[in-house]
C-alpha cells in the first residue's frame, strides 16, 4: 500500500540550485493548471463544479475554512474572498446548498465500517479530514462563533491594511514561502526561476514553437550571487494581432532608470488600455520607436550575467518578444497559497510601506513598478524568508480582499466588513432563508432568527421525511442526524483493531525463499515498488499466506473497495521516478491527456523528493492509458491504480504502529464483539449501512447544481478526541445513473 503523500512537491536539491525542481507553488493541481491550463479552461457547458485536487499540502480542513466555502457558495466572489483550500468554479450556477451532519460519528466510524458506507463513498468523490469538534460544531461551521484566534484573518480596518509588524501566532512551517525556501536567508541564484518553472509559467524559451522569432539576449551562463539586477516593466495595448508593446522601463540596481521608451505598435490599435498603461492616442502619435529598436537597445544594454526582475515577467518578455534565461518574478518569489499570486500594489504596501498605482493617476507608472519589483527582491535577499513569513501575507491579503468586496457591493457592505460574518448574515443580505432540521433532543442548534427556519423532529426517521419535503423549498439547508457515540473504552478497543487491520493490509507476504537466497537482492526488489517500512524473513515455513484471523478475513475485499473508491478513480501510484521525472512528463503532454496533477512527496526529514509519486487524471480511462505507457519499455516504471486517498494517510499517521506476529490469532475485544452480535438498529454498523443508503437516495432526488456536504464531525470527551471526516460533491444530471446503484 502506498505511503503517505507528504507534500505536493519535492524540496529542491542543494547541489546545483538553478536546476532545482519546482516547489509547492508548482506542485499537485497548481503546477498542472499553470502548465497545461486544464482547470482554467471553460467547460463545454457551464456547470458548477469543484476542482478534483482540493489540497496542496494538507488534507485537514478547519471549521473556519469550511464556513469560508459555504459563504462563497452563497454569495460568490464579488462579495466574499474565494475559499483558501479548494476551488469552486461557476458558483453562480449553483442552485442549492445542502449540509448533512451525522452527529456522533467520526473518521473512525467511516473506516471501521468502510464497507457499510459504500453508497456514500461512491457518490462523493471529494473527502477531507476535520479536526475534533469544539463545544458547538454547528455554530463553528455556520460562523456564529468566529473570534479572532491565532492564525485567523485579522479584523478588517478602515482605510488601510493592518500593520505588517503586528505579531500573529502563526505556524511558520506551513507558510508556502518557508516550505519553498526554508527559514534561512537565501542567495540571489536561489531566487532564480528554474528552466522547468519558466516552462510551467509560460516564459519564452529558446526552441519553443511559439518563440521562433524571439530575440535572445547576450548571456553566457556565468550568473552568480553578485550578478547585477535590473527591474523591468512593460505596458501594452490591444491591437488587431493581440497585445503589443507600447512602453518599456528598465531600472538598475541602484534605482536609476536606464531605459524608458514609448513604442509604436506594428498593427492597428483597437484599445490603448489607458486605464492600465496610462498611454493615450495623443501620447503615441509622435512616437517613431519600433519594437526592433527596443530589442536592439536592450540587448546592448544588458550585461551577459544580468538578472531581470519583474512582476508576472513572462508577459513583459513576450511583449518584448525576447528570451532571457535569468529571471526573478516577484509574483512567484513571494509564494502564495494554492498557487495564487499577490498583486504588486499589495506587496509594495505591506513589504515596502509605499503606495503605487494610485487611483487618482491615469494608469500605472512603468518606471515606478519596475523599481518596486527591484526593491522587493532586495528586501527578500536582505531579510530572508522567515521575516516575510512572519508578516502573514495571506491573512493580510484576505483582509484586503474582504475590504474590496465590501466596497464593491453596497448591498452587502454592512455584512462583509468583518471576517466573522456568519452564513445567516450572508443569506439575509440576499433575502434568503436557511432551513435547519434536527431532533428535539439534540444539544447543538442554531439561534432562531427571521432568516432561519428551524424544524425539530422526534427521530432521525422524521428528520429524513421532513428533509424530502422541505429541502427543495430552501436555497440553503442543514439536516442533522444524531447517533450514539462510542464509549471511551469501545473507542480505544476499536482503535487497536484498526491499527492491526491496516498494518495487515499494508503487509506483503512472499516466498518461500531458500536459506541461501540473496537478501540484498530481495531488499532491492521490494524497494523498487516503493518505500518499505520494515522487512522480516521467516525461513522456518514452507507455506506463504496472510495469517487468517477475524480481522483479516475481509482484507482482500477492502483492498478491492479502496481501489474502486470514487476519490481514487483516475489516480496512479508510480515507483522508481527520478528527480527529473516531472520535467520529462511535461515534455510529453500529448501522451498523457487528461492529466490534472503531479504529486511528488518529499521526505519530511531531509526535504528530498521521494522515488514515488501520484498522478491524478480526469478519468479512469485516461489513467489506464497512461499506466500502460509509463510501465512500458520506454519509461520502465512500476505502478498501479492508487489505493489510498490522502486524508486516510493523515489519519493512519495518528495511529501508533502496532501489529501482531505472523500466525497469531487476534481475538476481537469482547466489548465490541458483544456489541456487534447484538446488532441493534442504532448500532453504528447498521446505522452506517442504513443511513448511508438513505442519504444517497435523498441526494439522488436533489436538483442538478446542488452542493452537498456530508459531515461526520468527530467526537470530543474527557477521555480523548476523534477527528471528523467530510464528503463533498455537486449534484449533476449525469450522476443519476451512477447513484441508482444504491437506490
UniProtKB/TrEMBL annotation:
Q: Which residues form the RRM domain?
A: 570-640
Q: Which GO terms describe its cellular component?
A: nucleus
Show the ranges annotated as biased composition (Basic and acidic residues): 1-12
* Any Pfam family hit: RNase_T
The UniProt keywords, alphabetically, are: Exonuclease, Hydrolase, Nuclease, RNA-binding
From the UniProt entry, list the residue stretches annotated as the region Disordered: 1-27
A GO molecular function for this record? exonuclease activity
Name the PROSITE patterns for this protein.
RRM (PS50102)
This protein is called RNA exonuclease 5
